[in-house]
Amino acid sequence: MDKYEIFKKKINSLIGIDLSCYKEKQMKRRIQSLVTRNNFKDFDDYFEVLKTDKKLFEEFINYLTINVSEFYRNPTQWDVLEKDILPDLIRKSRAINIWSSACSTGEEPYSLAMLLSRFYNLKDIRIIATDIDLGAIEKAKIGIYNEKSLQYLPSEFKTKYFERIGSSFKISQAIKDCIQFKQMNLLKDKYPENCHLILCRNVLIYFTEEAKNNIYKKFYNSLNSDGVLFVGSTEQIIMPERYNFKPAKTFFYKKIDI
After folding, report:
1. CA nearest 252: which of 220, 227, 230?
2. What is the pLDDT along the chain (258 residues), one digit of tens a residue?
3. Which of 100, 159, 184, 196 is close enough to 129 for a disulfide, judged by CB 3.0 to 4.6 Å?
4. Cβ–Cβ under 8 Å, residues 206 and 22
């Protein structure tokens, strides 16, 4: 067994993250760059220090989770969500459960809360937001963002829900209060139940086909009847019927009851 295979097994034992579920070449290359950059001889040496060095450990987790996010990412998809998907869900069930399953630094669930403010009072909005990267979640809870990350956000939301602090923008407490953030590993942790809408955007591209298949099946079980899965721009599901989904709109898939 080569050193990277041993490293993967040690990481799984240490923190419960199975690197075998990630695309091999891409992930090995990313981790090798960390080994080289930090002047370690090989994966063995790197792992030994990783166990005790908090800064190095956080850097490693950040490399596993590629936090590239912005408010209203792919704006036309948010228009579809507002005009077609949400009204249908709300018509069937006034109170809807929403899960942002790879929330990164918070832009996605905060965008959701702002969008839902067009349908609900803020005090009635509750969104579960999860990510494997605890550092990203901590940044999300702080809620301070640069101007570039707000470039696609409707101007009314920027005015209403942000306070300018120097060159940055701080999101309002009223929006923060809509979100329940928690750490979660999509590969092994228990999923929320009875969701009307699940967002999983721009993360599945990093997983193997086998891992994706398992995640789609668990999303299916996590959704309630007629629930909707919203995926990223590079993640359209080929033959969604395999997972008992049907296309609702591009990038949106409705659960088929069986």
Report:
1. 230
2. 688 999 989 988 887 777 876 778 878 888 999 999 999 999 999 999 999 998 888 788 767 655 557 999 999 999 999 999 999 999 988 889 999 999 999 999 999 999 999 999 999 999 999 999 888 888 899 888 888 899 999 999 999 999 888 788 889 999 999 999 999 999 999 999 999 999 999 888 888 889 999 999 999 999 999 899 999 888 889 899 999 999 999 999 999 987
3. 100
4. yes
Among 113, 199, 212, 206, residue whose Cα is nearest residue 153 = 113
User: What pTM does this model have?
Assistant: 0.80
**Strand boundaries in 105-236, DSSP class E:** 127-131, 144-146, 162-165, 168-171, 179-183, 195-200, 223-231
Q: For residue 173, give both structure tokens.
A: 């407490």
3 state SS of 34: helix
Distance, CA of 30 to chain centre: 20
Tokens standing for residue 233: 């721009």
Look at phi and psi of residue 112 and say left if phi exceeds 0, alpha if psi is from -120 to 50, else beta.
Answer: alpha
Nearest-5° angle of CA 16, CA 21, CA 27?
95
Backbone angles phi, psi at 188, to 5 degrees: -140, -20
Q: With 0-12 CB in 10 A as exposed, 13-18 as middle and 19+ as buried, what is 8?
A: buried
Half-sphere exposure of 156 (CA within 13 A, CB side): 4
